[in-house]
Amino acid sequence: MTQTSHNVDHAEIRKFEELASRWWDPHSEFKALHDINPLRLDYIDQAARLQGRDVLDVGCGGGILAEAMALRGARVMGIDMGEMPLRIAELHTLESGVEVTYRLVPVETLAAERPASFDVVTCMEMLEHVPDPAAVVAACATLVRPGGYVFFSTLNRNPKSYLMAIVGAEYILGMLPKGTHDYARFIRPAELAAWVRDAGMQVTDLTGMTYNPLNQEYRLEKRRLDVNYLATCRLDADT
């Protein structure tokens, strides 16, 4: 049986621990993260204007997005429950000179410690890897300041996403290690929106991310939510 504590699936953590040393290799198992990072970064920056913002990256892994946001002028903290990815992230800041603070701490614990401490909270490609994604959404809402932004990205749950994200990406194209995703944990946009509302926020945008295997390019498309998608959420300024 998979052990869980602090809303962490330890089997999921081990998957990424084993690959941690290759996190910053753009041709490794993390190639997809490197390829989509400019799209994620621009999506966040266009909505929230990262310059001068206090930003929290939840489930930061080796720090690809966290460093990119810091380079856009944000003051960034990255948190994760994988010790090795965080070590890699910290080592990379020594090489790059980019200033990011990293902590090994559950998001729910940080929410209790530091409510309303961040202008922007990002939680990308993480919700589908935890036992209780609604609790993560609620913690992110607690951490953001009134009027602030929370960004999520995850995978829709339907036959097409199973074929594209698991059969295609993991078994046919080899873009991801086999077993990276569990289809049962994919999240429909309506499910995410319900958790966001329960946490006191509103979804202000949903945008899909598509992949063309012929030219190996990713794109953001407003109406294509059937596989990967991003969500912009805001906490009401009067909260």
Automatic annotation (TrEMBL):
GO terms for biological process: methylation. The keyword Ribonucleoprotein does not apply. It comes from the Bacteria. Keywords: Methyltransferase, S-adenosyl-L-methionine, Transferase, Ubiquinone biosynthesis. S-adenosyl-L-methionine binds at residues 40, 59, 80, 124. The keyword Methyltransferase applies. It catalyses: a 3-demethylubiquinol + S-adenosyl-L-methionine = a ubiquinol + S-adenosyl-L-homocysteine + H(+); a 3-(all-trans-polyprenyl)benzene-1,2-diol + S-adenosyl-L-methionine = a 2-methoxy-6-(all-trans-polyprenyl)phenol + S-adenosyl-L-homocysteine + H(+). It is an enzyme of class 2 (transferase). It holds the Pfam family Methyltransf_23. InterPro entries: SAM-dependent_MTases_sf (IPR029063), UbiG_MeTrfase (IPR010233). Pathway: Cofactor biosynthesis; ubiquinone biosynthesis. Its EC number is 2.1.1.222, 2.1.1.64. Gene3D superfamilies: Vaccinia Virus protein VP39. GO terms for molecular function: 2-polyprenyl-6-hydroxyphenol methylase activity; 3-demethylubiquinol 3-O-methyltransferase activity. HAMAP family: UbiG. Belongs to the methyltransferase superfamily. UbiG/COQ3 family. O-methyltransferase that catalyzes the 2 O-methylation steps in the ubiquinone biosynthetic pathway. This is Ubiquinone biosynthesis O-methyltransferase. It comes from Thioalkalicoccus limnaeus.
